[in-house]
Automatic annotation (TrEMBL):
This is Light-independent protochlorophyllide reductase subunit N. One of its GO terms (molecular function) is oxidoreductase activity, acting on the CH-CH group of donors, iron-sulfur protein as acceptor. Component of the dark-operative protochlorophyllide reductase (DPOR) that uses Mg-ATP and reduced ferredoxin to reduce ring D of protochlorophyllide (Pchlide) to form chlorophyllide a (Chlide). This reaction is light-independent. The NB-protein (BchN-BchB) is the catalytic component of the complex. Residues 29-384 form the Nitrogenase/oxidoreductase component domain. It comes from the Bacteria. Its EC number is 1.3.7.7. NCBIfam families: DPOR_bchN (TIGR01279), PRK02842.1 (NF002768).
Amino acid sequence: MTERFAPPPARGCSTTPVLKERGQHEVFCGLTGIIWLHRKMQDAFFLVIGSRTCAHLLQSAAGVMIFAEPRFATAILEETDLAGMADAQKELDRVVHELLERRPDIRQLFLVGSCPSEVIKLDLANAAERMSAEFAPRVRVLSYSGSGIETTFTQGEDACLAAMVPVLPASDERQLLLVGALPDVVEEQAVGLLEAMGVGPIRVLPAPVRNAEYGVGPNTVYALTQPFLTDTHEALSRRGARHLPAPFPFGEEGTTAWLWAVAQEFGVDAETFARVTEKPRARARKAIAQASENLRGKSVFFFPDSQLELPLARFLTRECGMHAIEVGAPFIHRAVMGPELDLLAEGPVIAEGQDVDRQLDRARAARPDLVVCGLGLANPLEAEGMTTKWAIELVFTPVHFYEQAGDLAGLFSRPLRRRGLLKLEAAE
């Protein structure tokens, strides 16, 4: 095989000065990550230590019916807890004991911090350590913060996985670790492609059940499937595992580059790689071409929200023919985002953090064809005549790897088609 990727741009964004903003920002709560994590980890339970607002958020986001028994709940902090009139630790112990008696299927219990529990400085880390000792070996208790005070909504998953890494057993096994929660069908596609090349053994984090637990050590190499897993990346590096830098598997190009990085590490020859990827690559290219017809030549502006912004900008500009005006990201971790910055052609403003009023001014001045932003900004911008795409939908929808590449392009083209139809109806 002589051709694997399109040539990189003459000048990428790796040396572009980053506009760093530290003003008012719009974020969505990190507790939201529980909605997809509890589906991936089948023996885990997520106990949010928070307010009634936290409970309403989770119920609304998950769409849980009243007769369902999900694997998450909220331990409500009442006014007496917040005022320091009650011993919150004793109350937490009581709630956890009742939960584990009622749900003997739980093998992993996550105590999830929220804005209210962090405001009163409730020490969930020590509580988790104490409970782990009490309930071991049947139940492992861990803690992490899902607070939305200073974080993006995808950091909930990052904090959860980072909390799991230190308790993984040590191992000298040569293995590939795929890091990040993916829909089951997408994960199966990724593992299937790699196994067809002869790559293995392959582990995934998070694993579906604790019994599938594996170790980590200096012979572990890991590939991130989600761009927002920076704390998990650091935690794995501290355990001696080695990161495989690569663009993220969004679109045909990103998927191919990601797979090739793994293939090279495991000695897969070019002929085998071509044989395994040729047909799905062709399907992805065809699907992207069809879905992106009305994206070509259009401009896009990214507000910082999910930390998927840089990979998505690379996908839209290189594979869908769009022009990026500004790419804002909550955080830019160079070790993780370096390959993406190399491929994203010089031109757009690269912004880290947010000063929402200043960024809104830049968006209004630029008048892009499409704005990718959070829910809190989408409706006001739509009212001003702009076309928007909800960033959160890109996290909840299967968009990784070859078979989903056309769907990913379609998520961006649909708002533009909708806007065009509305204009036609108004004209009539």
